Description:
The complex is a heterodimer. By secondary structure, chain A is an all-alpha fold. Chain A is built from 10 helices and no strands. Helices cover 84% and strands 0% of the residues of chain A. In chain A, helix 5 (104-115) crosses helix 6. The longest helix of chain A is centred in the C-terminal third of the chain and has 40 residues, at 159-198. By secondary structure, chain B is α/β, with parallel strands linked by helices. Chain B has a domain at 89-151. In chain B, the strands form 2 sheets. Chain B has a 6-stranded mixed β-sheet with strand order 5-6-7-3-8-9, sandwiched between helices. In chain B, strands 2-1-4 form a 3-stranded antiparallel β-sheet, with helices on one face. In chain B, strand 8 (203-207) and strand 9 form a beta hairpin. The chains are: A mainly alpha, B alpha/beta. Chains A and B meet through helix 7 and helix 8 of A and strand 5 of B.
Amino acid sequence: MAxxxxxxxxxxxxxxxxxAIWEAAAWLADSRLFPGPGAVLTTLADDAVHGDLLHDxxxxxxxxxxxxxxxxxxxxxxxxxxxxxxxxxxxxxxxxVLLLNLPALVIAVLLYVWLGLTxxxxxxxxxxxxxxTVVVTLREGARTLDRDLADMAESFHxxxxxxxxxxxxxxxxxxxxxxxxxxxxxxxxxxxVVELLGRPDxxxxxxxxxxxxxxxxxxxxxxxxxxxxxxxxxWGVLQPLERRLARWRR
Amino acid sequence: MAPVTIGxxxxxxxxxxxxxxxxxxxxxxxxxxxxxxxSEFCVITGPSGCGKTTLLNIIAGLDRNFDGALNFTPxxxxxxRIGYVFQSPRLLPWRTVRENVALVLPRNADxxxxxxxxxxxxxxxxxxxxxAQLSGGMARRAALARAFAxxxxxxxxxxxxxxxxxxxADRLRGLLLRLVSTRPATVLFVTxxxxxAVELADRILVLSPAPGRVVAEMPIAVPRERRRDLGQxxxxxAELARLAGHPIGPKYSENSIFTGK
Lengths: 250, 261
């Protein structure tokens, strides 16, 4: 399905409406535990300049980036290999199903116990939570590869690299995109839990601290900064990529 | 450098498809012997399912799982360059026409030559379009351009003009003959349209129903320009039908021969 950019004015209007409702609700509640957007945005700017916000955000994004790349690369390789070799598919399938249904919290706790409260354990837990969804999606994609086009590439002596780049990869691209988007949505949620459980920095850690201090203003400010990054990735990377990959479709 | 074209000599004892769970095994080809001379335009015809496509896949090297021998003459000069035009165009939908054709070229290929070829084949105007935007005839032209772009010694064509309207198929046959006269290649052309066979071939091989083998052979000495003469055409076609010895499909009744003009 093609994506059409909503008119900018509409997007801005809906954002302003949301802010107005929030401000009104905060004014009605009149509580330290329900700050309005003005207070939150001031805190956001202040913490970005003077506080740890950028450091924490950076730490979280770095974890997301590493886990994302590891899970996509590993999941793609495993998924395609499983689609090619039936024996391997049978062998690994139950493992994939198990991992797919194991709660991320369990994976995180186990890895923290086994590897200590380390960066490796944190990134490993996020990667393992996302990996099986990538495997399943890419395996499905690799199973639907067009035999006729593969024969065409072979008869014209495309070789391994040209076949991969011009024949195989474009067929896998939609599956890759679905895996990226679903995987990213999953990672955003899991990474905060993993940080909250066992890291000394990152947005998840900060949120835990603010929770204990009942500092709701900061808690919302940090969450907003995080959401802003997610939206930037969605609009700046995923959607343009999606349009680019779909341009040959009529 | 004068292009050297390539002959093919085939001696296939047996080609079987393994039966998948439950399905019976199918023998596609059996005791098929044939020789194709360099620069010859050889048309292969026969009833549906007689193994024509299997035969082309074997020659193309896509199917090595058969019992028999496949040789190219002259044997020296390494593997022949084979251009394959499939039954459906098999263009990469995510690449433009120009990219599709350029993909089969060696890395240091002459881009001007490519543009000349696109113009000759009549796809220069749609070179930047994606295959989904092309008409059936244009897509087939693009597939033809791809096969010629690599400078083939041997051209394999598997009912390449199937499902085109009569006029479009006729134009493409004319184009093919022009291309082969300026860019010589040995051609193996599969069709079950007898009129098409008679119009194009230097020699026609008729295969039996499965398992396929050559049951008749018919050289056509009449020059191509005179084959347009309806009397001449009917005579050749009648001879071919007699050689085939079995109905090649009721579809090819008298009037179907004359639709191509």
